[in-house]
Amino acid sequence: MRLAQAARDKATYKGGCRDPAKASEARKKWWSNISEERKYELLKKFIEVGQRASKRSSKTEPETWVARVLDQMGVEYEQNKQIGRYNVDFLLETGKAIECFGDFWHCNPRLFRPEYYNESLNTRFG
Q1: ∠ CA 8-39-81 to the nearest 5 degrees?
Q2: Cβ within 8 Å of residue 78, ≥6 positions away
Q3: Is 0.70 topped by the overall pTM?
Q4: Residue 24 gets which letter from DSSP?
Q5: pLDDT tens digits for 7-56?
Q6: 82: which strand partners?
Q7: 93 and 75 co-located in one domain
């Protein structure tokens, strides 16, 4: 482990200077050097983790309200439906999707400044 630690670029791992640009470049370089099969495995795991997190954070007040309205209207839907690598809040029988707080979670550029920092997502959108 000491050899592995010594070989790391200190700017790209926790405990180093955490330079985001260097870390990003290191990740891009690493990604470009792994096999397509490994990329597929990693993306599949990433999507599965996202699905579990999405299901845990579902049933928010807005989602509960939308579900109630759809039920009252007699619209058939699936909630938190996975479509490929995407998870939509509601998939209607017509094939259309409804996203609750989509502008917030997906950061609609018409509503957010490029330098906006979202504390709950711990990310900068610009």
Answers
A1: 125
A2: 90, 91
A3: no
A4: H
A5: 666 655 555 556 778 888 888 999 899 999 998 888 888 777 766 666 65
A6: 87
A7: yes
C-beta separation of 54 from 91 below 8 A = no
Q: Is residue 109 part of a domain?
A: yes
| Residue for token pair 């058939």 | 76
> Residue 45 is encoded by which pair of tokens?
């795991």
Tens digits of residue pLDDT in 56-82? 556 778 888 999 999 999 999 999 888
Q: Which domain holds residue 120?
A: 60-126
Give the C-alpha separation, 112 to 23, whole Å. 25
- Tell me whether strands 77-83 and 86-92 are parallel, antiparallel or unpaired: antiparallel
Can you point out the beta strands (E) in the chain?
77-83, 86-92, 97-98, 117-118, 123-124
Residue 95 contacts by C-beta under 8 Å, 6 or more apart in sequence? Answer: none
